[in-house]
Amino acid sequence: MADLHPGSQHPNMEPPSSKKHWRLYLMSVVLGIGGSFQYGIQVSLIASPAVHVRSFVNYTWMLRYGSPVDESANQLIWSFIVAVLSLGAWAGAVHSGSLPVTYGRKKALLINNVVAMAAALLMVFSRTANSFEMILLGRFLYGYNVGLGLSVHLMYLGESSPKELRGFMTLTSSIFIGLGKVTGQIIGIKEIMGSEEMWPYLLAISGVPAALQFVTLLFFPETPRYLYIDKGDADGSRKALQWLWQEDNLKLELDDMQKERERALGEKAKTVKDVLTSRCVRWQLLTLTIPCAGVQFCGINALYFYAFDIFRESGVPENQMHYLAIGIGATELIAITLCSFLIDRAGRKKLMGYGYLLMGVTMCLLTVMLSIKDLSPHIPYVNIALIFCVICIYGLGPSGVSMALPADLFLQAWRPSAYVISGTVNWLGMFLVGMLFGYVVEGLGQFCFLIFVAYSFSSAAFMLYFVPETKGKTMVEIMDDFNKLNYKNRESDIESTGISTKL
């Protein structure tokens, strides 16, 4: 195994391309395939078979009742097929606070893959069984897979990475979300799997990455921090670190885990109620919910909705809209990939804070330009450019950092319950935006962006003025920084967040 050079323990001294961490990078690929990739592909591919699925609903209805389904009922069933993913994801996020603690991060992901493979089987046989209810159940199970998988994916990466690479590694989850979106858009075109004959297999495609992760994850160890801090297995943790990092000199990392274990000694994993009510994690909770889990409210989904209207106004043919959507998804993926190389250099605070600020400014300008779009035939092209600008900014800042920052905020005992809260805010927010956005657009038109502008500016101010930088710091050092906010003007009350629950 490669020896650790003296300077490599310091933040930012070692570039993310270091060859000795190749197993760690390979693990991020395995985790990504069955983790956040599933989120991206499920969000993007569902639009492609919409016509075929609604036709199938009508066909099964006629078989059962002898008459076609009412159009409004068909629309309601289709809307629920789309929206039930968020409800399933919320259920998965809730269980992310118990399954990874009881069975470990690795076993939780293996169980999660079985759920996705079961959902894929339901999708494949739904047409044979003439049952659209199997599609509904399959989408719910896919949602469960996404909600649990995304949370445990982030835990796994954060607990297995050295502090100088923790931001880069956790941000790979966002890269796989973007890759999943582009993949779903590409395979969803009618020339590949978007045809009437292939739509059940398109809906079942997530079973493939689930099977791949199930097989390959067996060759990787449990997370070192879970083994040491939760299970007290110092030898197993050392072996896992040596295998993943290809290092022998692990004293600093093991000492940090020992300090964290001593602070949490004799305590069980914290509950959601503990996280919500404890003063010692108050500012971590605010950071988790406002700029990170609340990222659904930054307006990116509204932007995707308006993009097609703007493309039409610019003269783009309807049959080419899908290819432009692929271009938007590819732009986001490229921006997130670039963010992965900046996050451990520029830091989380600046990337997210200034990212939200620039998004707010750009969406203000877009709102103005949409209001005057009839004044000149060139304005729609300006609006297309502004859409791509917002997507680039989103990928460079809020999208990536919202995945990476939560891994920095909580010690081991608090982390699973914190991810339950994060997942609940994120998925219920996505459900509400999906259900209510149409009504908001109908009532406000292009001025709906002003709601998202308010959120972007508020999150920017919160990040830039209150949240301490976390790059290159150990979990205990980050906790000490947040304690200065949690116990402001009460220095004598600063205690270990690993011990105190309420103050």
Automatic annotation (TrEMBL):
GO cellular component: sarcolemma
Coiled-coil region: 247-274
InterPro entries (alphabetical): GLUT (IPR045263), MFS_dom (IPR020846), MFS_sugar_transport-like (IPR005828), MFS_trans_sf (IPR036259), Sugar/inositol_transpt (IPR003663)
Localization per Swiss-Prot or TrEMBL: Cell membrane, Sarcolemma; Cell membrane
Similarity comment: Belongs to the major facilitator superfamily. Sugar transporter (TC 2.A.1.1) family. Glucose transporter subfamily.
Protein name: Solute carrier family 2, facilitated glucose transporter member 5
GO biological process: D-glucose import; dehydroascorbic acid transport; fructose import across plasma membrane
Membrane-spanning segments: 22-41, 76-97, 109-129, 135-156, 168-187, 199-220, 285-308, 320-342, 354-372, 378-397, 418-438, 444-467
UniProt keyword Cell membrane, yes or no: yes
Taxonomy of the source species: Eukaryota, Metazoa, Chordata, Craniata, Vertebrata
Topology versus the membrane: Multi-pass membrane protein
Gene3D superfamilies: MFS general substrate transporter like domains
